[in-house]
What does this fold into?
Amino acid sequence: MTLVKESGGPASAPGRQAQTQFKGRKRYGELIIITVLRSAAILTVLTTIGIVLALLIPALGFFQQVPVTDFLFGDRWAPRFADASFGVIPLITATIWTTCIALLVAIPIGLGAAVLLSEYAKPGLRKVLKPILEILAGVPTVVYGYFALTFVQGTIFRDWLKLETGAFSVLAAGLVMGVMIVPTIASISEDAMNAVPQSLRQGSAALGANRMQTSIRVVFPAALSGIVAAVVLGVSRAIGETMIVALAAGNQARIVGGPLEEGQTMTGFIANAALGDSRVGSLEYDTLFAVGLLLFFVTLLINFISIQFVRRFREEY
Amino acid sequence: MTSIIDRGTTPLGHRRSKFSGERTPRALIFLVLIWACLAFSFLFLLILIVTTFIDGADRFTLSLFTEYPASSPDRAGARPAIIGSAWVIGTTAVLTIPLGVAAAIHLEEFADKRKWYNRVIELNVQNLAAVPAIVYGLLALAVLSFLGVQNKNIVIGGALALGLLILPVIIISTREAIRSVPIEIRQGSMALGASKWQTVWRQVLPASVPGIATGSILALSRALGEAAPLLVLGALVFLSFDPNGLLSGFTTMPIQIFDWTSRPQAGFQELAAATSILLLGLLVIMNGLAIFIRNRFQTRW
It folds into this structure.
């Protein structure tokens, strides 16, 4: 700015010149381009509206034939039987089992890995360890499903441990799914821990705490909102995961009483029902969307809880 | 493991040198535990890769690439699934990358963030990224039914489902790439008389191409491994021809793996493992390419 002033002359009125330049003449070509860009952004909103409509319309058709209470509170799921019954509780129990088992694996391992990467590892070591951990997130879920069915269930559970279990179990599916979401939880929690200011660690060290005490009592509480967000994202991934449960959890929709039993989750039902040919508009076809709608709302709800939680408990530094 | 502790207590260690009492039994147990977390994950990954290779190595032959699926595992191959994957992912890329980049440019460069509708779009993109994959399959199924398409297992339908699935991923990574271009570049361009769009097109976009390419390749590699949405469209079919167009029926590698895994004969499981090797290999190549582009072409401002 000072340079311009020193040079004097016509350039000494940069403000006015810039203003005329910014206005310029109307560029109709650019208006078109900007409209195209805006439509692309609006398309994302249309996708959401599309999802809601696509699920809601067939689901409404379904609920005209099956009362909502029968669907939500019925304990027998047999949509293909002669005396069809549409109680979604069995699908929900299987989903809860696989999700809880997955979280029992993913939360401790993910948080342990996050503490190691954020508080203990030197930058050089971290640069090596983190990408290896993230490979786990890149393995296709169908490959995990293959592994859960053939190795975890078939080889470990049945051949080596001689567990009393059939060809499928919610335990095998849940365990493998847990490892799948470890990188999700680890990397988001690690970001949250990295965001904790160094001064808190220094203060803790000055009071004589070691790294373990600092990690558990200082860094962990300070990063709690990010850690909760990570766990919640893990939950929603576990609920929505399809291929692992479709392959390894089994296809029998019944109330799951133990980890070694088989069971069909909500996503597992959608995947399996889609294998059969169901006519558009038939009750079978609509059933897919009713379960899909439930799945969508559950994940949406979890997402909003996460956003609220992060807002309320965020520590500002 | 001891070497980590030793390094930690030397004065050269950076943020940890100030801590004391690192060798108490509890602290050591904690250290062992968190290392065990990472070791378990790595061991799991290793076993997964090794068992898949052992199971599939015998069937990872030329016939996997040249043969069609058959009722006997000895004669079966994954040729239509490989070609189908190429068609679906190619179509997805052509449909989604321009759309995602355009939406990201709008949000980052043109949208007035004080306006509520632009904030809605932003929030919506974040939410879409968390919608389960299988729901996108239901969306594509409903759209195709709405349009009156009888056979829903067509390449363009699969690309629609996968495209909408990865659109938020591409938007988010493109926005990050655009945001990393410093404001001075824009100001310099405008000061030379360029319009807003000329600035974006000639300065901001070329500078963010490496970031966009990296993000898009990673998003496409996710689409390549995804099976659930396509399963809903009925992509599990017995194909005895090569998919050859946008309206052609198709099946993909993950679907083929799913099909073979769920069959009882051991021969089919070996084929599933062999196809998994191929899929994992392709994903490694794509991820390697993404990392290469990021390291080689990314400008550090």
Observations:
- Chain B has a mean pLDDT of 88.
